[in-house]
């Protein structure tokens, strides 16, 4: 657990503001969604991967014109992790303004999450609009922020989880327009209970605006979920959590999502939100489509104790966050670093597939696995033309040791 948060936050922020540095890594075990390659090397120029090879023989640093050569010595080289659903870390939330964003992003960055969608919780609409504008401003200043995810206010009351019930509203067109205007292009995804009045209309409106609607915090039946997918929903918010489950005569939304290749289900792989047998079952339901997310709140990488989730009191015991008022689960304290490690070491998943769930799959869910206006170079693979987002990890523990974001060494 890291303790000098202000100094590390300042260092990460400074590193991200600097120009990218050309570099090479050699002698690595390269793992990405395409498989595992030993004795690998990679060259990064101008923030983008320029060349990749799978043998050190003939690698000449002088010939490729790179002075900074990192000897991996057999450590695992992966793409940077991409988290499309997280709320904070190191005692700060993404709703807490620029300082809170910087602190929480540093928390996840040093643990390997090079790019992140900043999830904002349900608040009064004017607060949500203000927070969206802050994310918009920060996107222009930092390459590691992909935009915002609104987890609310369009949630089913019965499945609200740790969201303030007084701030939930139906997705009427006027509210949809307010949120889109405040985001000014920064909104990447939004969680919607599709059975709400105007739910389908809102899904169509957000999809038309380039936002990924996510089915979640809902009581939708199977038919409604299928209709939502046809209307444009392409993500399921933390599958199994805050929704009606699978029943043999009332299938609910999960079978609709897992059967449809247009949808990416999120999964919180901490063994608590979703226990191991169900994670393994889900792995078979939607192969190569599960996106690991953290749903991490402010207590992430912090001691147990009392924290805030918006205006709600949260108690963290043994790393598990619950509302002090009623014991409802209130996000997680998970890091993607740990989600990948437990997938490989505890669940026995293939390394390439575990890495895929934290890199290429979440990137693809938002269209970032190809050249785009948000990151420029695509995310999710160690391949020429992709962003210089890379991690060196311990091959035994999967703990992250070195981090590069857009060609910038940040940790």
Automatic annotation (TrEMBL):
The active site is at 295 (proton donor/acceptor). Zn(2+) binds at residues 151, 217, 238. Substrate binds at residues 162, 241-242, 249, 273, 329-331. One of its GO terms (molecular function) is N-acetylglucosamine-6-phosphate deacetylase activity. The keyword Metal-binding applies. It comes from the Bacteria. Binds 1 divalent metal cation per subunit. It is an enzyme of class 3 (hydrolase). One of its GO terms (biological process) is N-acetylglucosamine catabolic process. It holds the Pfam family Amidohydro_1. The keyword Cell wall biogenesis/degradation does not apply. Belongs to the metallo-dependent hydrolases superfamily. NagA family. This is N-acetylglucosamine-6-phosphate deacetylase. It comes from Bifidobacterium gallicum DSM 20093 = LMG 11596.
């Amino acid at each position: 657990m890291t303790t000098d948060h202000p100094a590390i936050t300042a260092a990460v922020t400074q590193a991200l503001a600097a120009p990218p540095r050309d570099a090479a890594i050699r002698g690595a075990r390269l793992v990405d969604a395409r498989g595992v390659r030993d004795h690998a090397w990679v060259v990064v120029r101008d923030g983008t991967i320029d060349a990749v090879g799978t043998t050190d023989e003939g690698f000449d640093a002088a010939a490729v014109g790179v002075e900074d050569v990192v000897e991996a010595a057999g450590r695992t080289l992966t793409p940077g992790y991409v988290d499309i659903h997280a709320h904070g870390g190191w005692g700060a939330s993404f709703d807490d303004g620029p300082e809170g964003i910087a602190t929480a992003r540093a928390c996840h960055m040093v643990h390997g999450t090079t790019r992140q969608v900043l999830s904002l919780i349900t608040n009064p609409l004017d607060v949500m609009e203000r927070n969206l504008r802050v994310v918009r401003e920060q996107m222009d200043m930092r390459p590691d922020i992909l935009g915002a995810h609104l987890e609310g206010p369009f949630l089913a009351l019965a499945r609200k989880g740790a969201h303030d019930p007084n701030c939930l509203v139906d997705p009427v067109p006027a509210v949809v327009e307010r949120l889109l205007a405040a985001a000014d292009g920064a909104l990447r995804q939004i969680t919607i209970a599709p059975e709400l009045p105007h739910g389908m209309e809102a899904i169509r409106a957000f999809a038309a605006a380039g936002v990924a609607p996510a089915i979640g915090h809902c009581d939708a039946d199977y038919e409604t979920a299928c209709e939502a997918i046809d209307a444009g929903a392409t993500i399921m918010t933390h599958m199994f959590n805050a929704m009606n489950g699978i029943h043999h005569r009332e299938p609910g939304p999960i079978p609709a999502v897992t059967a449809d290749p247009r949808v990416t289900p999120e999964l919180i792989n901490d063994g608590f939100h979703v226990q191991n047998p169900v994670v393994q079952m889900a792995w078979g339901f939607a192969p190569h489509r599960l996106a690991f997310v953290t749903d991490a709140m402010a207590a992430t990488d912090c001691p147990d104790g009392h924290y805030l989730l918006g205006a709600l009191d949260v108690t963290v015991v043994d790393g598990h966050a619950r509302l002090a008022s009623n014991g409802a689960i209130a996000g997680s304290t998970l890091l993607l670093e740990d989600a990948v490690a437990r997938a490989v070491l505890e669940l026995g998943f293939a390394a390439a597939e575990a890495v895929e769930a934290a890199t290429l799959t979440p990137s693809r869910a938002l269209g970032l696995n190809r050249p785009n206006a948000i990151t420029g170079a695509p995310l999710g693979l160690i391949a020429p033309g992709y962003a210089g987002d890379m991690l060196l990890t311990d091959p035994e523990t999967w703990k992250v040791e070195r981090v590069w974001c857009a060609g910038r060494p940040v940790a």
